[in-house]
Amino acid sequence: MADIHVNNLVFHMSKIQAELDETKRKLKQEKEEKERVLTRLSTIAGSKLTHNNPGIADLSDKNRPQKLGEYFSELYDNEWTEAVSGLTEGHGEEAAIQLLRDVLKCIAIKTKEWASKQYKSLQEALFQRDLRESEAGGFVVIYKKITELQKEVAKLSIANAKRWLKEDEEFRATYKDVLSFGEPYIDRSVELCWTMQIQDPPMHLEFDSSADIDKSVFRLFTRNGNTLDFVVWPALMLHENGPLVHKGVVQPLPKKKEDRKT
């Protein structure tokens, strides 16, 4: 009889242990599911917060806007300076400066076009159509992924952009001297302009200055003055109509010409 009681007790204990194990398993499963949901919600919230919001920077990104401002300054100090030196003998300094400015403007326009086309192609590949603006809000996380994908393949995209540019007959004919004396300047300009275009939102180069120089946006080149002669180097903005990241450079009119204008 005692054996029967012991066996019953063992059976009940085993049953209770099995139920306890099953309860623990379900609790663990529910906890993991809850964590997955919270992680997903956090990702969605983070994507909505950062999508088209350049004010929130990813400090781990070596190509975040502030770093691009530093690289853009280095382009002016290094490759631009060397290219001006090489072109000045045949063109004169002012013409050389304006030629290099126009090259950069051309590259900025073309990389904007190519990067936008790439983004749209990726979007259409995912959705099989071009989304209406009213639908876009529901796919913020996916839009963020498209931007991330563009960044992941940027090295290949930049190599293609350099090749497309140098195969462009109009570009080759117009800027053949820059290709001869300033190819490193062209290459680095493509790298930076492409990287600026795949920011979220894209960064913006401001090539235009009012006749009355805005010294909060542009610094002066080799002359003092308040009236614009020509733009030497564009200002870099966080996005179009956005805050300044790096000042541009302008050459004021000589003092006598400025006095005559006033």
UniProtKB/TrEMBL annotation:
Its main location: cytoplasm. The keyword Cytoplasm applies. One of its GO terms (molecular function) is lipid binding. Residues 13-44 form a coiled coil. The keyword ATP-binding does not apply. Belongs to the MIEAP family. It is found in: Cytoplasm; Mitochondrion matrix; Mitochondrion outer membrane. The gene is LOC111125901. This is Mitochondria-eating protein. The lineage of its organism: Eukaryota, Metazoa, Spiralia, Lophotrochozoa, Mollusca. It comes from the Eukaryota. Pfam families: MIEAP.
